[in-house]
Amino acid sequence: MSVKLKPLLKKSWNIAWHNPLLWLFGFFAVLFSNNEINVIIANFNRINNWIDQLITLKVIKTQFNTIFTGIQSQEFFTATALYNISLGIIIFLLFLYLSIMSQVALTVSIDKLRTIKTRLTLTNIWEKSKTFFWSILALYFLVLVITYGFLYILSLPFLYTLPIPIITYIIIFLILVFCVTFISRFAIFYVILKNNSITSSFKNASLFFFKNFSIIIKTSVTLFIILIVIGLGVLLASIGASFPFFTLMSLFLYIKFIFGFWLTLIAWTFILLAFFVIISSIFSSFQTSVWILLFSKLSKKLPS
Fold it and tell me: Do the Cβ atoms of 99 and 140 come closer than 8 Å?
């Protein structure tokens, strides 16, 4: 099925821009909304560390030694240490919950908005999203196991006794991550929008991905280019807007008004941070909207 990207991008932008509630979901869902090309680029650092540790596995040994040393020391069991560990776990679980729920809420909301003009309410969307929380969590866990399981297999020493260049393993790993990342995105749509089981969603998402490979890659590249353009625009805008603040801070330093200097610095940092958060949240909702609209158009001839 032929899909024209320009109308699809325009409709996705209209959905994202005219529904600020999506920005809230987009803010928490950013963790799961990265462009697949970004994922590949990010993995180069992991691959670099992996190559360095192929045979000796020094990182794993060091981590285990650190853990066991910490357990054996009395400091590990102090009230402060246990409090910090407990607080860290709670914050992580809370952020994980909000991230997954927001991803589900974003998908449910955009699916509603693509067909009818409706007013979104946080309560209704959030309640409906709870239905899919455990399924999506299990899906992400499965993706994590597949990715790191394959990475572990490629780290086995006996593989490097074979006359195969290391670059071959790197290419295999990148291809796997690339495919799994795409397939997991569409598996989520099959679970939420078509009520598939986890097994069926992976099977159907794989079929969907390979059947529509060219248009999916084209869409991903387009989104990546848009992301670069937005990033450059944000960078230039932030540099241009920084001059008044830097001028004011320099003035406060000159007259030795330290309180004014710190107040201006904190205000500028807050404004800059808020600006980046809003932009990334809007782009996250826009990107998800693009994929859902594309999925809805291309999945009609595939099993649900």
Answer: no
